[in-house]
Amino acid sequence: MFIQVAFQQMVVELYAISSYLNFKLPVDSTAINQQVRQLLLVEQRLQLIEEEVMRLFGVGQSSRAHRAYHTLIELTEQMRLAAMHLRLLTEECLIDPEGAESCFQAEAVKQNELLNQIKSLKLASNWPAKALE
Length: 133
Description:
Layout: H1 2-18, H2 29-57, H3 63-92, H4 97-124
Helix pairs in contact: 1-2, 1-3, 1-4, 2-3, 3-4
């Protein structure tokens, strides 16, 4: 039961963190620096979640739970990479604002895909306790 609760909490946290991946193009250097710091914190938190998932993943589980945790790990890695890309694009705003803006638009599509994956995982996390034990 603990593993199921931990899984559900991680999915909820990923869902909450995903809101930080919807940044818009910053307008000045103060906003850029603030956004870069925020994205660094998001990257660090996602790294901690990934480590926790891998720690729990080692506990003996059913094949369905194994797939669920594998999906959670992959999603966490994708989110961490997305945060890193957004951070780098944000830093790029100082050098090439127009180029960064077009890249931000492309990243927005990827963010929507990640959000849909999180939502589907959130629905799947309501499995009965036996499925994740």
